[in-house]
Design goal:
eight-stranded mixed β-sheet, about 350 residues, alpha/beta, about 20% strand, four-stranded antiparallel β-sheet
Length: about 350
């Protein structure tokens, strides 16, 4: 990928706050689901957004597709702010931006056959005659590893992995340029996860797709993605190339997440140091001041309580938001996963 290539997707200062009432007579407070996110994605890149439940990943995915409106900020697709588009232009844009949902059991209409599910995008966008649509559906099924003999079957007649293949085929029906994959393998058995990840990789090479891959699993994104952004309470706390971020994390939160990954070699597992986070994840209704992670951080100082850290480049192409000393000067984090 050339460095001179323009990003296909740019996120600038993106925020999504929700007004929430804590009680019948109490005033409303703001839940900051996404609180100032910036990153860009290059054409044909696989970019991962990783974080634990409640960090804002799914809200971010909805914003990237204009399924929700932001409180502030922009999402630029091929240089155009998607939130400034009128309904007709946004409808046309949907052909280039699609989503694969997390749950293959609830994302498919149980009253529709596979043929109807995969033909629906062509009908909505007025593409092709009925015979042509049927041929396209068959080609999609072949590409996603689905038997054409099942074209008249309903979703309940398929396994979880096969249903997710249907969801992938539906997302790719209109030949999109960008696909948002919202935890597409988390509801599947581990053996099936590998099959779906390999399918996504093959389809990316064949169709020149760009992925934004939402996940909580580093082992999954390591297999598929070139870059990773780590989120905590609505903010990106670290971002970098996959091998650099996993091999030498520059933020204490990333260090803790990586230390929780089990290593199959018992000798290595015995020797490595565990990072045990204290306390619970703070409520996004009342996040801590300064660095949101400071109440659980073993490196926290007084500065962390008052200073809101910005992403800064700690190594070439590797960014972290930590208000104390550069993480590279702290005890080696690379030893945690090697």
């Amino acid at each position: 990928m050339s460095r001179d290539t323009a990003p296909i997707l740019e996120i600038r200062g993106l925020k999504r706050h929700f007004a929430v009432s804590r009680g019948l007579f109490s005033s409303k407070t703001m839940l900051k689901a996404v609180d100032g996110v910036d990153f860009s994605v290059m054409p044909q890149e696989s970019f991962a957004v990783v974080g634990e439940s409640g960090c804002g990943k799914t809200t971010l995915a909805r914003l990237l597709l204009a399924l929700d409106r932001p409180t502030a900020g922009e999402v630029l697709f091929e240089g155009n702010n998607i939130f400034s588009l009128r309904r007709g232009a946004l409808r046309r844009l949907r052909r280039d931006m699609q989503i694969i949902f997390q749950d293959p059991y609830s994302s498919l209409n149980p009253r529709m056959t596979v043929e109807e599910l995969l033909m629906e995008p062509f009908v909505i966008h007025g593409i092709g005659a009925p015979a042509e649509r049927r041929e396209r559906v068959k080609r999609l099924m072949d590409a996603c590893g689905l038997a054409q003999s099942k074209i008249s079957s309903y979703p309940h007649e398929f396994s979880g992995g096969q249903r997710q293949r249907i969801g992938i085929a539906r997302a790719l029906a209109l030949n999109p340029k960008l696909v948002i994959a919202d935890e597409p393998v988390s509801a599947l058995d581990v053996s099936i996860q590998a099959q779906i990840l390999n399918l996504l990789k093959d389809l990316q090479n064949e169709m020149r797709l760009t992925y934004v891959f939402i996940s909580h699993d580093f082992s999954t994104v390591r297999h598929l993605c070139q870059r990773i952004a780590v989120m905590y309470l609505g903010r990106v706390v670290e971002m970098g190339q996959t091998e650099s971020l996993l091999g030498n994390p520059q933020h204490p939160y990333t260090e803790a997440l990586l230390s929780a990954i089990p290593i199959p070699d018992p000798n290595i597992e015995k020797k490595r140091t565990r990072v045990i986070l204290t306390g619970d994840v703070p409520s996004p209704l009342a996040p801590p001041s300064g660095c949101h992670f400071h109440p659980r951080c073993r490196y926290a100082t007084e500065a962390c309580k008052s200073r809101t850290p910005e992403l800064s480049e700690t190594q070439p192409g590797h960014w972290a938001a930590c208000p104390v000393l550069p993480f590279a000067q702290k005890p080696s984090a690379a030893a945690l996963i090697h």
